[in-house]
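[#protein-structures] MJ: dropping FP protein C-terminal domain-containing protein here for a structure pass
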Amino acid sequence: MSADPSICAVCKVAEPEATKIVTCVNCYKSEHTECKGVYGSSAAALRAKPYFCSVQCCEIHHRCQNPTLFSGIDDKVMSEILIEVRKTNTEMHDIQQTMGELKRFNTYVGNQIEVLVTEIKSVKRDYVKVKQDVGYLQSDQKQTNETISDLQLSLDRVNRAALIKNAVILGVPTTQTEDTKQLVRQIAAAVKSQLPQDAIVEATRLVSKDPSQRTSKSVPIRVVFAEEQHKEDLFAKKKNHGLLFTSALGAGSGPATNRIIIRDEMTSFGMKLLKDVRSLQEQADLQYVWPGRDGVILTKKSSDSKVEKVRSLLDVRKLQQSKRSRDESLLHSTDLSMSILAEPDPKR
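AK: finished. structure tokens for FP protein C-terminal domain-containing protein:
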């Protein structure tokens, strides 16, 4: 291991090369020959013989070598001089050690900084790669969602095809001795739809299996027609007629102001779509949400605004993205009997 560098007492710079400095043989103070103004052969000659930084150091050194020379100096003074010299030597040695430690510490810090910079560059490269991977995953997820949505819509079309002859009538109060088929015929007659005698295959109330939900007096009526054309004719006549109230069914049909609404029977996918949109109704500032035809959910922000269509769960996600941020979500009822309160005035 190389010796610690000497510290020049003039410029205070550590000097590792011994050939550039001279050191006092008495007090061990080091100085650059250049700092003393000595160059070339003069500097070499100065280093070739014992060097004293001052006359005092020279006298002290010679007296130490020849004790008889100290006879003229008081012992107390000599003791003080020696103490100061030793103190100076100790301080210089401490300074040299400190400078060596600082140099080693600076080297260590420099190495650590290089390691840190290398790690930061590595992390940056990893971040860029992860960001790219996330982008790829998001793209794949988007394609997957679109594929799932297409499959859901295809399956829903198949399920709706099985219900193409079915309809649901809402708003007709329940009575104990009612004939649901006759009620359907009365509704058809009220809108001037001439149904053949065998046009209605089945007409039953959609009573909930949950007793706690059997509170509505206007349980929806599920109607199965013999032919799709019979249903479409009823829908067309109802649309031309406009609003239809229970008063058109005659006495004993409940409150005269009850609105009667006729809709397609919804598939399970359509019901879920309706439920999802209604759960976002308040947050998305939708004043009206109601089921349309062909499995579409219709929405309006106000009575005068444009009707928007929700066809798939992708449309629901878009609705979620555009909704305003709120702390809590208020879920709305999906009971078909409550849809009268959330639907604008349709003509059918």
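MJ: nice. The CA atoms of residues 112 and 118 lie 10 Å apart.
AK: one more thing. The chain has four domains: 6-65, 76-163, 164-265, 267-327.
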